C-alpha cells in the first residue's frame, strides 16, 4: 500500500462512480467518500480470518448502488 496509497485508487475510480451517479445507478453523495468507503469494506473483507462470514456481493453492492424499482 505504500507504493499505491488509497488516494491513488480513489482518483482512478471517481470517474466510474461519477458516471454511475449520472446514470442513476450509484447513490448520491461525495464521490471520494463513496469510493473510500467501498475500498474500506473490500479491505476488511480481504483480511477476514477464519470464523468470519464473507458478505454476499449483493449486500456489498447495496452500500453504493440505488435500488431501482
Instruction: Report the β-strand fraction as a percent range.
Output: under 5%
Query: What's the alpha carbon Rg, rounded to whole Å?
Result: 13 Å
Largest sheet: none
- Head-to-tail CA distance between termini: 39 Å
What level of helicity do the residues show?
55-70%
Uncertain residue ranges: none
Number of strands: 0
Q: Which geometry do the CA atoms define?
A: flat
Overall average pLDDT: 88
Describe the structure.
The mean pLDDT is 88. The protein contains three helices and no strands. The N and C termini lie far apart (39 Å). The longest helix is centred in the first third of the chain and has 17 residues, at 6-22. Helix content is 55%, strand content 0%. It has helices at residues 6-22, 31-46, 57-61. Helix 1 (6-22) crosses helix 2. With 69 residues, it is mainly α.
Tell me the layout of helices and strands.
Elements: H1 6-22, H2 31-46, H3 57-61
Helix pairs in contact: 1-2
Question: What's the short story on this structure?
Answer:
With about 70 residues, the chain is mainly alpha-helical. Helices cover about 55% and strands about 0% of the residues.
Amino acid at each position: 500500500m505504500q507504493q499505491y496509497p488509497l488516494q491513488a485508487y480513489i482518483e482512478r475510480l471517481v470517474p466510474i462512480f461519477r458516471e454511475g451517479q449520472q446514470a442513476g445507478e450509484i447513490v448520491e453523495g461525495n464521490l471520494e467518500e463513496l469510493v473510500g468507503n467501498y475500498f474500506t469494506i473490500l479491505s476488511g473483507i480481504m483480511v477476514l480470518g477464519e470464523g468470519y462470514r464473507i458478505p454476499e456481493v449483493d449486500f456489498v453492492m447495496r452500500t453504493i448502488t440505488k435500488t431501482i424499482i
